[in-house]
């Protein structure tokens, strides 16, 4: 039984790490990719006087960060329950 | 009622509130003193963490920074928020599961090493003390400017109030006062922002006001870009620095934010692992309310300032405001010295333009301009806002209370991190492990009182290098603390030798790079290279180097740990256990 528990813990950790990597790739692409590296290109798209690259760097990225954390919270709660490691 | 009296009343009312909370939230045990008994609701903790994190710099200076730097200030907006994603995903839940009181304690236990714990204490104290100086100065300045006291009296008043609630209540008292302080500061920040957005763009929501127009179908940012170019500046919305430096600066700020101990310990106060995750999300929501408002305040107040001094056509004589016609707020801020006018060409009118631009020099000469005549301290962008928007005196008073709340809440959080490191890590952990619970609680209170006095002393006699050291504070947190915390959780094979080598190399590299440009130990004149972009290695400034230090830390730690024996079995089991919220 002990080895079964260990396997479950490994599987839980693997799924956790996979989720982290996915979310961190999005985190990186939004802030560094769109907000900095591609900002000059995106600035060609202008909405009501606001260039898109500028908007992502000063507003959009922050909204994306919030969304990322809440997606993480939601998914981890589900994962905790799936592997029966959730707190009451 | 006059402004000073109103300010006294409102600031006095907020201080009475903080004292009331302190008496109610007295700490009775070390658990309550260090981590508020681990009983703080995740939303409440999010609010407290937001106040803990947002300092006088965020409240007073950031909008002004955005106003004068435009797009380039995005590094602060993204850097100081994106770190919470790292904190939520990589540190907070696991450190909460570990379930102890301080950050050095985790490092000491995980790497089964007292020296590692002591190095962590030193990095924590240097980073936190640096920060505290700025908060203390902010408190003194706010008092002397708005309550007409001397700087020293203001500082003593601030020290007394922090002393009261931090020494009595510890983390419990600090948490509940921070919640009140968050409410004061966010109200004080958003009310003037709403009115200025309404006045300039006709839209009451500042975040949407950025998309607004300023009459005749011209959009706000478009108009700002054009007017700045016509005055010889760069456009507001485009990058002025280099992409590489922006990249590394943003990364250093993010990693540094996630590694700052006074923020991390706030996540020890919630009841469960899932609460730590959720709390990080709420923290960012509460921070974002201010951080997404700041770009609107920056752009709008800057536009308003330029429009005030340059109401007409650029180049035409009557296009510039005559000094005799300046609005009331202009004269009042002139008295404080934060706004200055020097009539260089003697025409009695105010010219604001970029006199550093060689390309623009001929045009300026053609206009009969003989140099920029307006100097603006960026801090007034927030503080003068209520007056510019013609709001009543109580709103101005509220802004003062908001600035004080921001400085006090951050100072208290930092003092908590310092005092717990001293009493729990040094006294109980290293010097006298047999100390009783009661003895440790007393030691914690004495350490807190000592930390308040040291911070006050440094506030009264700020070292000349205080401003430069802030760059180092983030560098230290980024290059030493964050990487070893992360490796301690995600790399089971990481051992004591690896962590020590990693911390020392990351720390050493970052400090040397900073010292080369800022002077050895910040002694003026001892810098080996001038601190200008053309002398930076690959254009990466000393402020941005923490991220490189973090990478060096990770690489060195990994290599050394591979070459040495794996950690003992019980440590590997510890790592296994912190990875899972509840043992099944």
Short summary:
Chain A is mainly alpha-helical and about 90 residues long. Helices cover about 80% and strands about 5% of the residues of chain A. The two termini of chain A are about 25 Å apart.
Notes on the structure:
- The complex is a heterodimer of chains A (88) and B (584).
- Chain A is mainly alpha-helical.
- Chain A is built from three helices and two strands.
- Chain A has one domain (8-82).
- Chain A has a two-stranded antiparallel sheet with strand order 1-2.
- In chain A, a hairpin with a 2-residue loop joins β1 (46-47) and β2 (50-51).
- In chain A, α1 (2-37) packs antiparallel against α3 (52-82).
- The longest helix of chain A has 36 residues, at 2-37.
- The model of chain A has no long low-confidence stretch (mean pLDDT 92).
- Chain B is mostly helical.
- Chain B has two domains: 3-300 and 389-578, Sodium/glucose cotransporter (Up-down Bundle), CATH 1.20.1730.10; 313-388, no CATH class.
- In chain B, 70% of the residues lie in helices and 1% in strands.
- Chain B has 24 helices and two strands.
- Chain B is globular and about 80 Å long.
- The model of chain B has no long low-confidence stretch (mean pLDDT 88).
- At the A-B interface, α1, β1, β2 and α3 of A face α5, α10, α11 and α13 of B.
Element layout with pairings:
The complex is a heterodimer of chains A (88) and B (584).
Chain A: H1 2-37, H2 39-42, E1 46-47, E2 50-51, H3 52-82
Antiparallel strand pairs in A: 1-2
Helix pairs in contact in A: 1-3
Chain B: H1 3-24, H2 30-35, H3 42-53, H4 56-69, H5 74-98, H6 103-110, H7 114-146, H8 151-201, H9 206-209, H10 220-230, H11 243-259, H12 261-264, H13 273-291, H14 294-309, H15 328-336, E1 339-341, H16 358-367, E2 374-376, H17 380-383, H18 385-388, H19 393-431, H20 437-460, H21 466-490, H22 496-518, H23 546-563, H24 569-578
Antiparallel strand pairs in B: 1-2
Helix pairs in contact in B: 1-8, 1-19, 3-8, 3-13, 3-19, 4-14, 4-19, 5-11, 5-13, 6-7, 7-8, 7-19, 7-20, 7-21, 8-14, 8-19, 8-20, 11-21, 11-23, 19-20, 21-22, 21-23, 22-23
